[in-house]
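pasting input
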Amino acid sequence: MMRLQEAYEELVRRMREQTLLSSCAELLGWDELTYLPPGGVGHRAEQQALLAGLYHEKATDPRLGDLLATLEGSDLVADPDSPAAVNVREMRYAYDRLTRLPRDLVEEEARLTSVAQQAWSVARANDDFARFRPWLEQVIALARRRAECLGYEAIPYDALLEDYEPGLRTRDLVSLFDELRRELVPLAAEVGDARRRDRAAVLRREYPLDRQRIFGEAVASELGFDFHRGRLDTSVHPFSTLIGPGDCRIATRYALHDFGDSFFSILHEVGHGLYDQGLPAEHYGTPMGEPVSLGLHEAQARLWENTVGRSRAFWRHFFPRARQVFHESLHDVDAEDFYRAVNHVAPGPNRVRADEVTYNLHILVRFELEVAMIAGDLRAADVPTAWNEAYQRDLGITPPSDAEGCLQDGHWGDGLIGYFPTYTLGNIFAEQLFAAASREVGGLEEQFVRGDFGGLLGWLREKVHRHGQRYRAPELLKRVTGAALDSRPLLDRLHRQHRELNEPT
Amino acid sequence: MMRLQEAYEELVRRMREQTLLSSCAELLGWDELTYLPPGGVGHRAEQQALLAGLYHEKATDPRLGDLLATLEGSDLVADPDSPAAVNVREMRYAYDRLTRLPRDLVEEEARLTSVAQQAWSVARANDDFARFRPWLEQVIALARRRAECLGYEAIPYDALLEDYEPGLRTRDLVSLFDELRRELVPLAAEVGDARRRDRAAVLRREYPLDRQRIFGEAVASELGFDFHRGRLDTSVHPFSTLIGPGDCRIATRYALHDFGDSFFSILHEVGHGLYDQGLPAEHYGTPMGEPVSLGLHEAQARLWENTVGRSRAFWRHFFPRARQVFHESLHDVDAEDFYRAVNHVAPGPNRVRADEVTYNLHILVRFELEVAMIAGDLRAADVPTAWNEAYQRDLGITPPSDAEGCLQDGHWGDGLIGYFPTYTLGNIFAEQLFAAASREVGGLEEQFVRGDFGGLLGWLREKVHRHGQRYRAPELLKRVTGAALDSRPLLDRLHRQHRELNEPT
């Protein structure tokens, strides 16, 4: 019999090698979105396919199964919160899931998503859903096959959700989301812009691109993003990626007449980056050094983007600087005007540009349609109609085109089914975390006004970041906030903040 | 017995996979020199070590030996110039060399160079050779061990040369370099700047960085560098790298008061890039799709940088544009002044900034010292003295410090012994190729004056680039120029050009 310590060391070495390999793929992916010349796209796909194949080989090596079997139930993992126990638990989880996927399915998924993504992009550019329809059908078919291979308790969509938010079930989301819909639809109708002048017009004045970047970097740095261990680049879509410890990269886009688009994207990606930079580097490459779940990662992003970045205290601190940097556009505006502008509620067809109140309604529509597609209750061909009906019902609008409607997001072309709900989960987690931080740290608003964000960041580091995957999301939430998943804090804050903003000035 | 066609297809598949893997490492290397945040350096070294290990595993897989043995001598490789024969020949060559290197040596080399490079950088910054000495000793010791593993005909240095310029022997270089020294030392003394006013002062006026980049990109594009399939970035040291077909990247640095440094670096790297962009993409991943040798690659760079880029015809075409772009600095200068400025000869301690006449003397010194170190005739501790003596003897100067003397180049810290001679080889090849192109294409100067560089590039594509490794360097040279390696064309052009420039104006 293998000696336990040796077996564990080999397991760690193998985990680290897997992570190293996927970190090479991360860099290739980052480059693809930032600097890759157009002529290099085809080669990049081949590089990624090779690395994905090598990764799959390593991650499903039967030797891993042997090592895990040796370690499970042993003294080494007796304390369930110890790094060894956590790593063995999470490696087992990943190994079992991966080995349930036959190689031909993995390869077909890789092939399909690279062409489906392309087809989606063409379809959107031409506002022609019909071009994407056959690919969406295949994406759905493969997702269903994936669900069957992975297994599930109640319905196939559960298996897909599990990829992004382990432990979460469709039925939980349905009730959570119904609750949100019940309150957000009337709130949006109440505070939406039909009732008053366009407060956000100031955000559409002229903001020179280079100064947007400089301002964004300064804010990012002040919030705690470490540029010695990270970068900010320009890309078509905002994103963040962790290449390795000490190398966390975020990217955004800039538009001359849209301050909010790049600024809040930077805050959002900085939130992701702060989580990645706060993970315990000594556990890098093992689950103990990795983020808990997509929803919890998204929560970090939403917390800095919205709860912090759209607060009055935040702008009391940063607005004077913004007015210096963008003097031509902001000389006749004050901090309160700006605070109102960045919180302007206006139901529209676009998810990414949506305000906080309507944002979750966009997610609810996608979730509803995904569940129906996977259940076989909605055909790809009927998606545009179903989409527009749901938008009319929940947001009171009909998208002017499919390009601005059901073709707006790239997720389905990317093969990502079950991913959308994590955005709203992130909003809910974020507000629960922020409420707990407010109670425990105290005086956060005053600190923000002074430009001190270290109290909040320190609390997040201590309570969330440094634990890696020590606890699954529900348990972490319980330990940190004392509560289960609960939309109340989010709904309460949105009601409070937007009703106050809506009072006649 | 394996069927031949199947065996060949498997061989090609394996070659391509190796190249794909090393192309991932190329991208990581590019990023390291351009965008990597400082905190990511350690992780990057681990990523590179992993990829190098995976590469070595694939490249020394005994299955390759079996496939090669099956194919060698078969009908499939009967025509020695056919892609199959070339690929089998070069794969055999690479396989035999790699399998002669024990894994512990390869790993020790990787480990040593990453720390020796660091030590070199600190030693240079502190002008403290003693800090680098122990690492240089280890580099030499490993290089000697490498030579013993690889085997050689006459002396160990031959084995190291073979890594960079297959087929070339030390004794050939000694006589070639003696010939150069015999003529270049007196030429440098004759036309060197001690005798006349500093014509190059104009290059040290103010050249705004951004305009240098724009001008450099415009020239690169006009010479034929395809930005759809490539990029130009900023780095500490100029370099070029081929990530894959359709993705060739060059980089340079910019200094406000040094036009020549970035501009000729761009031309140099563009020359490398044009070769890479001209390789047959359909053979990518196999020797048929790869450059012949380092010397021949360098020749492409030198040809565009010097033979073309320092010609009167080139500046008759580009100077008017330069004067527009840099009006403040060039309004009182004409094309002829500028042509003279970029050809100013001034012996100095620095290789990278050296003029064309003295450049090769810098290489000769390094070659002489390397050969002596590998032969055991020169100890690392004695390098500074030997270096300074050789500089006094050949260039008539003594470097003011080791930092500006024997510590100026990073090659030895990188473990590269046997690499330097390829720079001078490149100059010689370049001039032989250009002389042949002049004869065959005809009217090149007039074409350059018109801004037409397609004739020369087309000839290089046809005669050199598209062949990949079909021929080894000596044979290619013979087929293309009708001659063996010959320094006469280079020496003749330098004499002619610099004597004419030296005539009183």
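fyi Strands of chain A lie at 230-234, 239-244, 247-252.
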